[in-house]
Amino acid sequence: MSKQKITDEDALSFHLEPTPGKFEISATVPMTTQRDLSLAYSPGVAVPCLAIAENPELAYDYTNKGNLVAVISNGTAVLGLGNLGALGSKPVMEGKAVLFKRFADVNSIDIELDTEDPDAFCNAVRLMGPTFGGINLEDIKAPECFIIEQRLKEEMDIPVFHDDQHGTAVICAAGLLNALHLSGKKIEDVKIVLNGAGAAGIACIELLKSMGAKHSNCVVCDTKGVIYQGRTEGMNQWKSAHAITTELRTLDEAMKGADVFLGVSVKGAVTQDMVISMADNPVIFAMANPDPEITPEEAHEVRADAIVATGRSDYPNQVNNVLGFPYLFRGALDIHARAINDEMKIACAHALANLAREDVPDEVALAYGKNLAFGRDYIIPTPFDPRLIHRIPPAVARAGMKTGVARRPIIDMDAYELSLKTRMDPTASILRGINARARSAQARMIFAEGDDPRVLRAAVMYQRNGLGKALVVGRSNDVKAKLEEAGLGDAFRELEIVNAANTQHLSVYKDYLYERLQRKGYDSVDVHRLATRDRHVFSALMLAHGHGDGLVTGATRKSAHVLELVNHVFDADAAHGAVGVTALLHKGRIVLMADTLVHEWPDENDLATIAERGADVARHLGLEPRVAFVSFSTFGYPVSERAEKMHIAPSVLKARGVDFEYEGEMTVDVALNAKSAEQYPFSRLSGPANILVVPARHSASISVKLMQELAGATVIGPILSGIDKSIQICSTNSTANDILNMAVLASCKVG
C-alpha cells in the first residue's frame, strides 16, 4: 500500500480552506420567527433556568451539557514538537474535537489555557465545570499532567481524562490481551519491559497491573536505564511507584527473556539483538511516533514468531487512540458519569479485544482491500470498523453503572445499542470506505485537463494521499508554471505528464480512432486533429488502451460536450445503457438521483435501465438499493399523460426480474418520508427510497441544483455508470476536492 505524502503546503491549505479551522457551531433549533426567538431566549429561556437552579441534574435535559466535552491543553507537550505554548496547540485541540464528533457524535470545544502553573490551570478548568459533561486533557508535559489530572479528578464531579496517558494505555491493553491469547500466555505470568517512563508509559503499566500483571514482573526503563529500588537519578514519585528490586540496569539486560516489550520512547531504542534475546512468541509494541523503536520488518527478520504493533497506520496492528477516547466518553456521557474509572477503561480494552476476534464485516475488508481476520497481523480493530460505536460505549456504560459512577443508569441496553447504531452519519462511513478502497486499488488516474489549476491540485492530492499514480494530460512547461503559481512547484517531479507529443502510442491511438469514426464523416486528418489536439479524446484513448485505470475530466467544458468527445472512443450514450447518477449527501442521508447526465427524455424502458444503473452505484457505495420512480402523482393520481411512463416503469423492472426494491410512481415526500409513506401500506419499499428516478434530465438537474444551493447538500457526481471503463465527468464549477472525489470514485470503479 502506497504511503501518503503530506507537505507543509498541504497541511496549511487543509486548515485554511474552505474556512479557517476545522469545525464550526451550528444550531439545533429553528430561529426563523419571533416565537422561536422568544422560546430560545427571552422570556422563554427563563423557564429551564429556574428548573436547573432548583435541580442541577436537569442541565443534562435542557442544555447540551450531556454531550459536550472540553479538549483542554496548555501546549507544553504538543505531539513530538515540545512546548509550543497554548496558541500553538490550538490546531491539535481542534483536531481532537473533530475526532470526537466524527467517530462518536460527541460535541467538543477546544480550550487553550495560557499558563504553565498547575494551580492556575486547575482553577480555570474547575470553574468551567458546569458547562461540560466531561474534560479531555491533552498535550500537557510530565510531571504536571499527573498533578493536574489527579487534582481535577478530586475536585470535579464529571469525567476528567488525560488521553495521552490513558488513551494509549487502553488500546495497548486491548492489543496485548489478544497478543497473549495468540501466544498462549497469561498476563499474570509474563515478564513485561516498558521503555519510556513518561505519561503514556506509566499509564500503560499501571493499567496492565490493574488487569493482573505482577509488579515484580514489570521492568520500567527510562533514559537512565532500569528503574530499580534505591535509584535516585532522574526519579520522581510516579517512577518510584514502579521501581522493583532487581540487578538489571540497562534495557539490553531487561529484554533478555522478556515476553512483552512496550515502547513509548524513541526511534531505534530496540535492536535486533534485543529481540533475539526475548522469550518465545515475543510481543513487541513499538509505539514511538512517527518512527517506532524497531520496525516490524526488522523484528520479523530475526524473530518470525514475534507479534508486532506500532503507532503507524501503514503497518498492521496500529495502536491508535481514536479507538478509545471517543467511545469512552460516549459511554460515560450517556450515563451522566461522575468519572471515568479503571473499570471503565478495562471494559473498553476487553470490548476492543473481543471485537477483533470476531469476523470482520465485508465492508471493512472491502475498504481496506484485504481480508482481515483475527491473528498475528490483526489483534486490534481498525479505526473505521462501523461496529465500534455500538460495541464499546455499552461496555463502558455497564462498567460505569456497576461501579456506581452513573448519575442516570441506562435501563434498556438493547434500545441504547440500537440508538448508537443509528446515531452516526452513514455518509461519513461511505466516504471513508471508498477512500480506503481507492487507496488499496492504487489506480493510475488520468486527469485530462492539466491546464486547469483545480485539476492539478486534485492530481497532487490524489498522489500525495497515497491513492495511486496521477497521470496529467498537458504540456510540461504549462503544468510546471501552473503548479508553481499554486505553490506546488515541488509536485512537478512527482506527477507523470502525458501528451500526444511524448507518447509512443500515438499511431496506435489514431488507428483505433479512425476505425471507429471513418463511417461517421471523419477522415484521417480529422482523426489526427482529434487525437493530437483534444485532451478529452486523447485521455479517452489512453484509457481505452489500458494506459491508465480511470479517467477524470469535464472541469473545463460543459458535460454534454465532454461526453460527446468521450463517445468518439467509448459508447457512453443512452443507446448503450450509460447513465449518470448523482449522489446527494445531506443531514446524514444519501440519496442518488438519476439520470443526471445522459438521457434527455427517457421512456419507460430507459427508466428501468436507469433504475438498474442506480442500484449498481448504490451497491458500490455500500447501500441496499430502494428505487422510487418519482413524479407529481402517486400511484396514478392525479391522472396525467406526463406521468404515465413513471407508472409503467416498475412493471418493466418486474418483467426483468431485478433483485432490488422498487416502487412508483410517487411524489418525492412519499418516497423519502416514512410518515407520508404510511398512507400506502401496499408499497413494495421497506423504507425510504435512496434512489430517485426522475422523468427527465432537466428535472434531475433542477432537483440537484436546488438541493445544493438552498439546502447546502454535498453533491458527488454525476457518476457515469454502464460503460466498460471507469470514466467520471466533473462539472465546470467543481472545486479541487470535488475533482478528487470523482477520481476516488473512478479508482473504486463505482458505476
Your description of this structure?
The protein folds into 4 domains: 8-158, 3-Layer(aba) Sandwich (Rossmann fold); 185-320, Rossmann fold; 435-566, 3-Layer(aba) Sandwich (Rossmann fold), CATH 3.40.50; 578-721, Rossmann fold, CATH 3.40.50.10750. The mean pLDDT is 90. It is of the alpha/beta class and 751 residues long. The protein contains 32 helices and 21 strands. The strands form 4 sheets. A 6-stranded mixed sheet has the order 7-6-5-8-9-10, sandwiched between helices.
Layout of strands and helices, then pairs:
Elements: H1 8-16, H2 34-40, H3 46-54, H4 59-62, E1 68-73, H5 85-88, H6 90-104, E2 107-112, H7 118-127, E3 134-137, H8 144-155, E4 160-162, H9 163-183, E5 192-195, H10 199-210, E6 218-222, E7 225-226, H11 237-240, H12 251-254, E8 260-263, H13 272-276, E9 283-286, H14 296-302, E10 307-310, H15 325-334, H16 342-357, H17 362-368, H18 388-402, H19 413-421, H20 426-441, E11 443-447, H21 453-464, E12 468-473, H22 476-485, E13 496-498, H23 506-517, H24 524-533, H25 535-544, E14 550-553, H26 559-566, E15 579-586, E16 589-594, H27 604-620, E17 626-630, H28 644-656, E18 661-666, H29 668-672, H30 674-677, E19 691-693, H31 697-710, E20 714-721, E21 727-729, H32 736-747
Parallel strand pairs: 1-2, 1-3, 3-4, 5-6, 5-8, 8-9, 9-10, 11-12, 11-14, 12-13, 14-21, 16-19, 17-18, 17-19
Antiparallel strand pairs: 6-7, 15-16, 15-20
Helix pairs in contact: 6-15, 7-8, 9-10, 9-16, 15-18, 16-18, 17-20, 18-19, 21-32, 23-24, 24-25, 27-28
Query: Going by CATH, what is the homologous superfamily of the largest domain?
Result: Malic enzyme, N-terminal domain
3D shape? globular
Q: How is the main sheet built?
A: 6 strands, mixed
Q: Supply the number of helical segments.
A: 32
By CATH, the topology of the largest domain is Rossmann fold
**Beta-strand level of the residues, as a percent range?**
5-15%
Annotation, overall tally of beta strands: 21
- CATH top level assignment of the largest domain: Alpha Beta
Number of domains: 4
Rg over alpha carbons: 30 Å
Q: Gap between N and C termini, in Å?
A: 24 Å
Average pLDDT over all residues: 90
For the largest beta sheet, what order do the strands appear in spatially? Answer: 7-6-5-8-9-10
SS content category = alpha/beta
Share of helix among residues?
Answer: 40-55%
Organism: Planktotalea frisia
GO molecular function: acyltransferase activity; malate dehydrogenase (decarboxylating) (NADP+) activity; metal ion binding; NAD binding
Protein name: NADP-dependent malic enzyme
Family: In the C-terminal section; belongs to the phosphate acetyltransferase and butyryltransferase family. In the N-terminal section; belongs to the malic enzymes family.
